[in-house]
Amino acid sequence: MKNSFSDWLSSSELGCYLLEREQAYFDRAVADVFGFHAVQLGLPEVDFLRANRIPWQCRVADSGPAQILCDPEQLPFESRSLDLLVMPHVLDFTTVPHQVLREAERVLMPEGRLILTGFNPVSLWGVRRLVQVERRVPLPGGRADHDQVGRRRERPEPFRLVHDQVRPRRCGEGLGPRRCVLPGG
């Protein structure tokens, strides 16, 4: 689904329009963010960090031309190691949005920035997704919102306060081979 969404962004008129608008949004949003480490999680085919001046930038995804391949709910970065994390449509394509947001909180520095985009589930895109069983346009949320016959599944609300749901970790808990130390850090 994610690959077809990426293809749709670059090949259809509506997708190109959306990509142009989101690229302009990210260019404005990341231009004045400073720090040492910036990561783009998702849509590695598009450089949403191009307007940013942070020296170490990386594209991360679970497939495609990313520099690091991993699941968005288990990021391979040390806690409090990133100054900027951009997530274009990542929550649209995950079945565990709360865990993705918890991971984002874990890897961001205390004054770090999280910039994300996604489709509003109560917009025209969301209404279309509810009534359209056979999708020709790759609308997000296919795995998370509908079963095989198109019946609506419950979708958790991803924008509750993330901090209240974070489980405290003991020293060294969860640190394993999936963690990596960033250069210069």
Could you estimate the helical fraction of the residues in percent? 25-40%
CATH class: Alpha Beta
Mass-distribution shape: globular
Mean pLDDT: 79
Radius of gyration: 17 Å
Classification by helices and strands: alpha/beta
The topology string of helices and strands comes to HHEEEEHEHH
Task: Note the gap between the termini.
Answer: 35 Å
How many structural domains can be distinguished in the coordinates? 1
Q: Give the full name of the CATH homologous superfamily.
A: Vaccinia Virus protein VP39
The total strand number stands at: 5
Largest sheet: 5 strands, parallel
Describe this entry's structure for a reader:
The chain is of the alpha/beta class and 185 residues long. The protein has a single domain (2-165), classed as Rossmann fold (3-Layer(aba) Sandwich). It has five helices and five strands. Strand 4 (82-88), helix 3 and strand 5 form a beta-alpha-beta unit. Helix 1 packs across helix 2 (13-30). The N and C termini lie far apart (35 Å). Mean pLDDT is 79; it is low at 141-155 and 159-178.
Short synopsis of the structure:
This protein has 185 residues and is of the alpha/beta class.
